[in-house]
Amino acid sequence: MIQQVKVLIFLVSILCIETSFAQYKENDWKKRDTWMNVPKIFDLAGIKSGSTVADVGCHEGYLTIHLSKMVGERGKVYAVDVREDRIEQLDEHLEERKLTNVKTIVGDYDNPKLPNTSLDVVVVMDTYHEMDNYMVVLDHIKKSLKPEGRIVIIEKFKSHMRNKTRDTQMEAHTISLDFVKSELKEAGFTIIKEIQDFGDWKNESDKKIWVLVGVAK
User: Fold this and answer.
1) What's the pLDDT tens digit per position in 139-192?
2) Rounded to 5 degrees, what are φ and ψ at 157?
């Protein structure tokens, strides 16, 4: 009986993990389109046909696929993730869709390995809170941008983490706009757009999406 209970607890925990990360899987991308306003993100970022952009923390490619279609044949997308299995899955998605304007990169935790002075926009979505060496990463991103290039950071903030320390928020896989705004300025970016409420992450009212757009000085 005890062994059966242990097995049940294990299966439930696995189910919870899979559900938690469902938005990163291809079979949930259409549902994600209903609550993630991708066209508005591209408008805020100034991404258009012919742009050269990066998706840092691309997971299996939800945003990368959108970016690839947006920038078109004249554009280029660099898709970066630290997990090789995610990059391999993204490569399959790209091949299935016959998208050839994306270069996938297995990055380091403190270096996205982007080409210097080449990018119009770098998007970091639901990934910044995972970056321990965030100032080092921001420096690499800044060096990768063209003059007047933009960084776009998109995060979800969990309401019960309000007024908590930065470390406590990171442990809960979230981070407030105020922390990141200060860090972007310290890294040499000028904030040009700030949206504190960009909708609800997965339509959950206790998880507000926020957006910051910065320009490299």
Assistant:
1) 999 999 999 999 999 999 999 999 999 999 999 999 999 999 999 999 999 999
2) -115, 125
DSSP structural state of residue 115: P
**How much is the pLDDT for 3?**
53
Q: Rounded CA gap, 136 and 147, in Å?
A: 19
Residue 139 near residue 187 (C-beta atoms within 8 A): yes
pLDDT digits (tens, 9 = 90+) for 52-81: 999 999 999 999 999 999 999 999 999 999
Q: Are the CB atoms for 125 and 67 separated by under 8 Å?
A: no
Would the pLDDT of 8 be above 90?
no
CB burial class (10 A; 0-12, 13-18, 19+) of residue 41?
A: buried
Mean pLDDT of the chain: 90
| CA distances in angstroms from 188 to 122, 163, 183, 216, listed in the order given | 15, 26, 9, 6
First to last CA, the chain: 64
3-class SS of residue 163: coil
Q: Burial code of 113-150, b = ≥16 C-beta within 10 A, e = fewer? A: ebeeeebbbbbbbbbbbebeebeebbebbbebbeeebb
Whole-angstrom Cα distance, residue 144 to residue 112?
Answer: 10
Strands (E), 118-206: 119-125, 145-158, 189-195
Using N-to-C axis directions, what is the helix angle for 134-144 and 177-186, rounded to 10°? Answer: 60
At residue 17, the pLDDT reads: 39
